[in-house]
Write a structure and sequence with these properties.
220 residues; alpha/beta; TIM Barrel; eight-stranded parallel sheet; 9 helices; binds D-xylitol-5-phosphate; binds zinc ion
Length: 220
């Protein structure tokens, strides 16, 4: 059984309170919020005012995924906006160790996201400071993209690395996750599934969340 983090990027922004309530009432575990700056990724999403608005409605932790350059400048600001967990991109951080310490220093869980081309082995010397590794299973920037199959191998290798290092790091998978690949992802070692399009474009979103959550059972 995996934790489920619906990505609000696919929510209806003119009915955000309603969509937050749906997530509150569902079996979802976290709210996943995607912040894009138009520099690190070729898209711009939302920033502090929207996160604050979601914080006002959400009754579950806010898992904030920063697809931005220079995240260090805004760590405290994201905490103040309501983030409980802050994930930065490996590819955007020259001094990742310092960044992760700063995130933890603001009493947030620290996450590192890796793009599809970034090998999991590069995290070996930093895992002890990482609460969550977000394995990108699409190139970040947009919801609704096609899942990259190579992700399974990366999850298996990362699970092994985490075991070898003895850390308690969770593996989160982000991009193109749906009920067709969830069970295999969990079996490969995923602890958290992010799903945007699969949840919010479904006729019955809470049901999809529930199915994703039971994914391991479905394959057994
Ligand atoms: C992509 C974002 C994802 C996205 C996932 O850059 O990081 O969180 O919202 O959306 P789906 O599940 O639609 O691929
Ligand atoms: Zn994301």
């Amino acid at each position: 059984m995996a934790l489920i983090a619906p990505s609000l990027l696919s929510a209806n922004f003119s009915a955000l309170a309603r969509d937050c309530d749906m997530v509150n009432r569902s079996e979802a575990d976290w709210f996943h919020l995607d912040v894009m700056d138009g520099v690190f990724v070729p898209n711009i999403s939302f920033g502090f005012p929207v996160i604050e608005a979601i914080r006002g409605h959400a009754r579950k932790p806010l898992d904030v995924h920063l697809m931005i350059v220079r995240p260090d400048s805004y760590i405290r600001r994201f905490r103040e906006a309501g983030a409980d967990q802050l994930t930065v991109h490996y590819e955007a951080c020259t001094h990742l160790h310092r960044t992760l310490e700063a995130i933890r220093g603001e009493s947030m869980k620290a996450g590192v996201a890796i793009n599809p081309h970034t090998p999991v082995q590069l995290l070996g010397d930093i895992l002890y400071l990482v609460d969550i590794v977000c394995v990108m299973s699409v190139n970040p920037g947009y919801g609704g993209q096609r899942f990259i199959e190579h992700t399974y191998e990366k999850i298996t290798a990362l699970k092994e690395l985490i075991g070898k290092k003895g850390s308690r790091t969770l593996i989160e998978v982000d991009g193109g996750v749906d009920t067709s690949n969830a069970a295999r992802l969990v079996q490969a070692g995923a602890d958290v599934l992010v799903a945007g399009n699969a949840v919010f474009s479904a006729p019955d979103p809470p049901r999809v969340i529930s199915e994703l959550r039971q994914a391991r059972t479905a394959m057994a």
